[in-house]
Design brief:
Blueprint (H helix, E strand, L loop, with lengths): L14 E4 L3 E4 L3 H24 L6 H26 L13 H15 L9 E2 L4 H26 L4 H24 L5 E2 L9 H8 L1
Antiparallel strand pairs: 1-2, 3-4
Helix pairs in contact: 1-2, 1-4, 3-5, 4-5
Length: 206
């Protein structure tokens, strides 16, 4: 792919091109979904940029940054899958592999296995790295929601929707891991939860 021209004037009427042929209103569910994915790309990049300024010899940070780069590539591929959903008769339909979901789930499990259990909700703040990760988590959740809105009109691949659901889980556990790696004590919601409410906590987080 070559991008030779940035300003084309073709979007001045409120429509935009999809895969070079189809034009859609800029406020259509599909275009809003692509915008949400684009925003998510950027905030993942903000987290990566912050981590890049930390200890350069830290192997754990290097591993996290490698995962973030992989996620950014996945997000562009998801965007391609979303765009291709406009025309299901196109023989060049893009397929988002189930292995991407499996890889992400393994990362979640690996990080979750080293974390202590929670008794309440985590309040983001206190240290920049985990706070940024929680910010990415919330942007990820929003991107997932608008993708489901898009799915009602343009059917999306099951693997894409599952991946987006797992992604917010990943950034939640990553935020906790980053807090522990910097010896930052997590601040929890002070309202005590009854034992019966613990299932609600799990559903909210995952």
């Amino acid at each position: 792919m070559r991008i030779n021209k940035v300003t084309t004037h073709r979007g001045d009427d409120g429509d935009t091109d999809i895969l070079g042929k189809t034009r859609l209103p800029k406020d259509s569910p599909l275009i809003v979904s692509l915008g949400a994915l684009d925003e998510l790309q950027s905030v993942v990049g903000v987290l990566d940029a912050h981590l890049a300024g930390l200890k350069r010899g830290d192997r754990n940070i290097a591993k996290v940054r490698k995962l973030l780069n992989s996620i950014q590539n996945d997000l562009y591929d998801i965007g391609l899958g979303v765009m291709s959903s406009v025309n299901k008769t196109n023989k060049k339909q893009y397929t988002f592999s189930e292995s991407r979901v499996t890889t992400l789930e393994k990362s979640i499990q690996d990080y979750a296995s080293i974390l202590p259990p929670l008794s309440s909700f985590v309040l983001p703040g206190g240290d920049m790295a985990p706070t940024l990760s929680h910010w990415v988590r919330t942007v990820s959740r929003r991107a997932e929601r608008v993708l489901w809105t898009c799915h009602r009109k343009h059917s999306q691949q099951k693997e894409i929707l599952i991946y987006m659901n797992r992604l917010s889980d990943f950034f939640f556990v990553l935020g906790r891991v980053l807090a522990r790696s910097k010896n930052h004590k997590e601040t929890l919601w002070k309202t005590p939860l009854k034992k019966a409410d613990h299932s609600l906590l799990r559903k909210y987080l995952f």
